[in-house]
Amino acid sequence: MSKDLKLSIVDQSPVHDGKTQAEALRDSVKLAQLADQLGYRRYWIAEHHATPSYASPAPEIVIGQIAAHTQNIRVGSGGVMLSHYSPYKVAEVFRTLEAFFPGRIDLGIGRAPGGSEKPSMALSFPNYPTEAEHFPYLLEALTGFIDNQLPEGHMFEGLKATPQGGSLPEIWTLGSSDGSIELAASMGLGFVLALFIGTHERPAEIIKRYRKMYRPRPGSTQTEAPAMISSAVICADSKEEAQLLAASHTYWKVQAHLHGIREGIKPPEECMDLYKKLSPSDQEYFDVTRNSMITGSPEQCRERLEAQASYYDVDEIVAVAVTHSFEKRCDSYRKLAEVFS
User: Fold this and answer.
1) What gap in Å lies between CA 163 and CA 100, rounded to an integer?
2) Helices 298-312 & 326-340, crossing angle to 10 degrees?
3) Strand pairing partners for 74?
4) By C-alpha distance, which of 16, 20, 43 is closest to 252?
5) In whole angstroms, how far apart are CA 104 and each of 75, 101, 159, 217, 281?
6) What pLDDT, in 10s, does the model give residues 17-33?
7) CA dist 2 to 38, 100, 246, 306, Å?
8) How far are the Cα atoms of 5, 18, 195, 309 from residue 204, in angstroms, in the given order?
9) Does the pTM exceed 0.85?
């Protein structure tokens, strides 16, 4: 990899080639092994519920499998949807993973539910989903349990998450806008700006303000604010081929985000035929969404990624690629790694 720009991966565990979700999870392990061989820095697993096209509702389990089948790459969540869970339990899970794979585990935290209303209710049953305003308290407790440093007077002060005696996982917060930066900065957590979510403008000022507000956690050796960006990237032999491959996920987003239809990922040629039957407004959404992705030849992708990294002043980009074909997805990450070598 380039010494100037490090590459990592967020894997949404898409279901490829008409396979089952069980097969898709095994594809995630295969892709992680490839990423490890190619020199990617991190491999993060996303969390989605009741979504036929994505196969990973339990990233902590997949993390353990991937870490056990790779050698060097850091493995983590991108991210755990904390609003569903007990911070104490999440801390114990990731402390356990770190105990087995010291120095290789990342705990990425997201605020979104990772699914629609009904699965969110089912995850909380017999209680109710946590209100958004309670998220800072969940994150404060989680950070305290990971660090063994709950604030004085906290209701769980003195309670320690096990196992003890090992190294600690890195903690990152994920956000698609500036909504999480103040919280991440005040708690001394890393921040990932998820550009692959949505098409709204995310100015460089977001990262700048996060760094300005950043305060290291007590006892932390991380003195500078750690920040990354995450971008949708599909790399192929040509811009035309990459754009075609991107049609599969783009069409899925049209159906999921505009019409609430969460179906499987279709072949790109079929998606382009279906594109012609979309309403003008849906076609506009399709075009804007696909144009927000980084698509092209290896050289074109490298040029745009380096421009993004320079604009946001970061030295690591987490790439997200979703295609219908598993082999084409592997090729995309392979070409990207090679052009940065």
Assistant:
1) 10
2) 70
3) 42
4) 16
5) 6, 6, 25, 20, 45
6) 999 999 999 999 999 99
7) 12, 29, 25, 11
8) 17, 39, 12, 10
9) yes
Question: Measured between alpha carbons, how far is residue 126 from residues 120, 129, 251 in Å?
Answer: 11, 10, 36
202-232 burial, b at 16+ Cβ within 10 Å, e below that, comes to beeebbeebbeebeebeeeeeeebbbbbbbb
Question: What are the residues whose beta carbons fall under 8 Å from the beta carbon of 154, sequence distance 6 or more?
Answer: 140, 141, 144
Name the superfamily (CATH) of residues 6-238+296-340. Answer: Luciferase-like domain (3.20.20.30)
Q: Where are the domains of the chain?
A: 6-238+296-340
pLDDT digits (tens, 9 = 90+) for 46-101: 999 999 999 999 999 999 999 999 999 999 999 899 999 999 999 999 999 999 99
Q: Helix 280-291 to helix 239-253 angle, to the nearest 10 degrees?
A: 130
Instruction: Give the mean pLDDT of 113-140.
Output: 87
